[in-house]
Amino acid sequence: MAEDDIYTKDGTVDFHGNPANRKETGTWRACPFILGNECCERLAYYGMSTNLVLYFKNRLHQHSAIASKNVSNWSGTCYITPIDWSICG
Prior knowledge:
Strand content: under 5%
Helix content: 55-70%
Radius of gyration: 21 Å
Low-confidence stretches: none
Mean pLDDT: 84
Distance between the termini: 36 Å
């Protein structure tokens, strides 16, 4: 009975596929990786959206209003896509 208490009860497994040990997985050990991933994702998103207007204007020869509208559509798609996948999944 005591051996069963060291494993998670929610079906979580480690990277080998074995039941996850409560003392060795999750909690605050994963936090720096999650925060680092989110930071990199935000930097990529805002860097891309800033340069996208210039790309549309200079390379695709779009008018400023159309380029801004296209970037707004891209931004909206980026924000709505995770919600859509969570509903469908």
